[in-house]
Design brief:
The protein has 203 residues and is mainly β. Helix content is 5%, strand content 59%. The chain has an eight-stranded antiparallel β-barrel with strand order 1-2-3-4-5-6-7-8. A hairpin with a 2-residue loop joins strand 5 and strand 6. It is elongated and about 105 Å long. The relative contact order is 0.19.
């Protein structure tokens, strides 16, 4: 027993491994600057648009207008609109049945809509250029003046908005302007589809 105890080294006399003087691994990471895309800090947006409007029973004409929007949050925005187009009854005049006093009549419309951003994301052009974008839907109501008559109008639409910079936006949008008309002798709800390109500025 005594020889066994002589071979055992006391714990306080055991050799201690030396600690390394420096870090075992020295990471070398190249940090890159990240620019977070987003709209300007202001919530107002003023925009102008141009496109094509198909008025049921009367064909397709150009439409122009302006919008003023307020972004309530990242997902919801409100928007007022004024639009103008010129509609022709030339197809009916060819068969001797003119509907308007003159061949071309003005169509004016104003509305208030609410929009909801569905799919925020990015649009990539090439490998080094990306911009924030989102798909959205809109619902609204307003008035359409056509051939001297005011018609209550409902609007349903969807579109894509891309932010070229934090203050400049481009939108491609499709809408259906739904209003009641009796120009052909029958009172009916008409679907009047439009496709527009919109340029907007945040301030």
């Amino acid at each position: 027993c005594s020889s066994f105890r002589k071979d055992v080294t006391p714990a306080d006399q055991e050799p201690v491994a030396e600690k390394p003087s420096g870090p075992v691994i020295e990471p070398e990471l190249d940090r890159r600057d990240v620019i977070r895309p987003g709209i300007d800090t202001e919530d107002w947006e003023v925009s102008g648009f141009v496109g094509a409007l198909n008025v049921e029973d009367f064909g397709t004409e150009m439409i122009y207008g302006a919008r003023v929007g307020y972004h309530v949050s990242e997902d919801i925005f409100l928007e007022g609109e004024y639009a103008w187009s010129k509609i022709s009854d030339s197809n009916y005049r060819r068969i001797g049945a003119p509907l308007f006093d003159s061949e071309d009549e003005d169509l004016t419309a104003y509305s208030l809509s609410v929009g909801y951003n569905l799919l925020p994301g990015e649009v990539f052009i090439g490998s080094g250029w990306a911009r924030a974008s989102s798909m959205y839907i809109t619902f609204g109501a307003g008035n359409t003046n056509f051939v001297g008559e005011d018609n209550v109008t409902f609007l349903v639409g969807f579109g894509v908005r891309t932010l070229i910079s934090d203050w400049f936006s481009v939108r491609l949008e499709a809408r259906d302007r739904i209003f009641e008309s009796d120009l052909l002798g029958e009172n009916k709800w008409t679907n009047n589809f439009e496709m527009t390109l919109t340029l907007g500025v945040f301030f």
